[in-house]
């Protein structure tokens, strides 16, 4: 007679357990919106009770926000702002990292976008922080971290376009072609505003 195939509970530090639970959520996020993650399923996979999961995350919303925040941090690690280089080179690095991440992990990123659009204020706040960080990196690369409000708005709108194009780009659009188009487009968008520019070609 065999024992039930119940996953044995492994004793982890609080930090390691939180990391494990967030990691499970990130994996499951690939094929469902964050609000459809089952905390019962997550706890079972971790080999703990549902109640113990709530020891690490007080509510479902806190858990969902932690998963979205971790997904966003992964994206931001790929869209790093170089410390050196001219404006165009630095913008190109951020854009290349961002669009490359989105294209390689399209399903995960679309799930992240759906999470941000899900209407939960806590998750929306986390997602907005991610987008705001990307915008600040672009503005810093341009040499204008405290721009006119219209310049900041233009960069946020351009980022929305970059996101949509990265999601929709298929194999027929080369990575370098997409990045070049977006960087040139940013220069043309900002030129009438007199902002420090990535010069259009």
Give the amount of beta strand, in percent.
under 5%
Shape: elongated
**Alpha carbon gap, first and last residue:** 74 Å
Rg computed from alpha carbons, rounded to a whole number of angstroms:
20 Å
Helix-strand string? HHHHHHHHH
The percent of residues in helical segments reads 55-70%
Domain HTH tetR-type: 15-75
InterPro entries: DesT_TetR_C (IPR054129), Homeodomain-like_sf (IPR009057), HTH-type_TetR-like_transc_reg (IPR050109), HTH_TetR (IPR001647)
Protein name: Transcriptional regulator, TetR family
Keywords: DNA-binding, Transcription, Transcription regulation
In short:
The protein has 201 residues and is mainly α.
SSE inventory with pairings:
Blueprint: H1 14-28, H2 39-46, H3 50-56, H4 60-78, H5 87-104, H6 106-116, H7 121-141, H8 149-168, H9 175-190
Give structural attributes:
about 200 residues, mainly alpha, Arc Repressor Mutant, subunit A, 2 domains, disordered N terminus, DesT_TetR_C
Structure notes:
It holds the Pfam family TetR_C_46. It comes from Streptomyces radiopugnans. One of its GO terms (molecular function) is DNA-binding transcription factor activity. By secondary structure, this protein is mainly α. It has 2 domains: 53 residues, Homeodomain-like (Arc Repressor Mutant, subunit A), CATH 1.10.10.60; 114 residues, no CATH class. The longest helix has 21 residues. It starts with 13 loop residues before the first helix and ends in an 11-residue tail after the last helix.
